[in-house]
Amino acid sequence: MTGLIHSFCFANRRLLWPAILVCLALARPAYAQGPVVNTTADNESDTCAVNNCTLREAITDAANGDTITFYGKLSGQTI
Asked: pLDDT, tens digit, for every residue of 51-69?
Protein backbone atom coordinates (compact mmCIF):
# COMPACT_ATOMS: atom_id res chain seq x y z
CA MET A 1 0.00 0.00 0.00
CA THR A 2 2.82 2.41 0.86
CA GLY A 3 4.49 1.79 -2.48
CA LEU A 4 1.24 2.59 -4.29
CA ILE A 5 0.83 5.88 -2.43
CA HIS A 6 4.47 6.77 -3.10
CA SER A 7 4.05 6.05 -6.83
CA PHE A 8 0.87 8.13 -6.97
CA CYS A 9 2.51 11.11 -5.23
CA PHE A 10 5.59 10.89 -7.46
CA ALA A 11 3.46 10.80 -10.61
CA ASN A 12 1.48 13.84 -9.47
CA ARG A 13 4.67 15.72 -8.62
CA ARG A 14 6.02 15.07 -12.13
CA LEU A 15 2.85 16.59 -13.61
CA LEU A 16 2.76 19.54 -11.24
CA TRP A 17 5.85 21.39 -12.47
CA PRO A 18 4.93 21.31 -16.18
CA ALA A 19 1.45 22.57 -15.26
CA ILE A 20 2.94 25.42 -13.22
CA LEU A 21 5.30 26.36 -16.06
CA VAL A 22 2.44 26.40 -18.58
CA CYS A 23 0.38 28.65 -16.29
CA LEU A 24 3.30 31.05 -15.85
CA ALA A 25 3.95 31.14 -19.59
CA LEU A 26 0.33 31.97 -20.37
CA ALA A 27 -0.10 34.55 -17.60
CA ARG A 28 -0.32 38.16 -18.70
CA PRO A 29 0.37 41.21 -16.58
CA ALA A 30 -2.64 43.13 -15.31
CA TYR A 31 -2.88 46.72 -16.49
CA ALA A 32 -5.19 49.25 -14.92
CA GLN A 33 -7.31 50.92 -17.52
CA GLY A 34 -8.04 54.57 -16.94
CA PRO A 35 -11.23 56.39 -17.88
CA VAL A 36 -12.09 57.13 -21.52
CA VAL A 37 -13.47 60.58 -22.33
CA ASN A 38 -16.25 60.14 -24.90
CA THR A 39 -18.26 63.37 -24.77
CA THR A 40 -17.56 67.09 -25.01
CA ALA A 41 -20.42 67.96 -22.66
CA ASP A 42 -19.65 69.35 -19.20
CA ASN A 43 -22.31 68.20 -16.80
CA GLU A 44 -21.98 68.13 -13.03
CA SER A 45 -22.20 64.36 -12.57
CA ASP A 46 -19.30 63.06 -10.50
CA THR A 47 -19.24 59.60 -12.05
CA CYS A 48 -17.64 58.62 -15.32
CA ALA A 49 -20.17 56.34 -17.04
CA VAL A 50 -19.10 54.02 -19.86
CA ASN A 51 -21.29 55.78 -22.43
CA ASN A 52 -21.06 59.33 -20.99
CA CYS A 53 -17.70 60.38 -19.55
CA THR A 54 -16.57 64.01 -19.64
CA LEU A 55 -13.02 65.22 -19.12
CA ARG A 56 -13.98 66.62 -15.68
CA GLU A 57 -15.49 63.25 -14.65
CA ALA A 58 -12.46 61.37 -15.98
CA ILE A 59 -10.10 63.53 -13.91
CA THR A 60 -12.26 63.01 -10.83
CA ASP A 61 -12.46 59.23 -11.32
CA ALA A 62 -8.83 58.62 -12.32
CA ALA A 63 -6.65 56.93 -9.76
CA ASN A 64 -2.98 57.68 -9.26
CA GLY A 65 -1.09 56.34 -12.29
CA ASP A 66 -4.17 56.01 -14.55
CA THR A 67 -4.02 57.26 -18.12
CA ILE A 68 -6.99 59.26 -19.37
CA THR A 69 -7.67 58.53 -23.03
CA PHE A 70 -9.98 60.21 -25.51
CA TYR A 71 -12.45 58.46 -27.77
CA GLY A 72 -11.27 58.67 -31.39
CA LYS A 73 -14.37 60.48 -32.66
CA LEU A 74 -13.54 63.48 -30.43
CA SER A 75 -10.48 64.29 -32.53
CA GLY A 76 -10.47 67.96 -33.54
CA GLN A 77 -13.25 68.96 -31.14
CA THR A 78 -12.89 71.47 -28.31
CA ILE A 79 -13.15 69.83 -24.93
From this structure: 889 999 999 888 888 899 9
3-state SS, residue 74? helix
Nearest-angstrom CA–CA distance, 78 and 68: 16
Average pLDDT over residues 68-76: 87
| Amino acid at the residue 28 | R
DSSP lists the bridge partners of residue 49 as 52
Is 10 inside a domain boundary? no
Instruction: Give this prediction's pTM.
Output: 0.54
Does any domain span residue 20? no
Alpha carbon distance 14, 18 (integer Å): 8
**What is the domain count for the chain?**
1
Report which of 33, 32, 72, 36 is spatially closest to residue 55, judged by C-alpha positions: 36
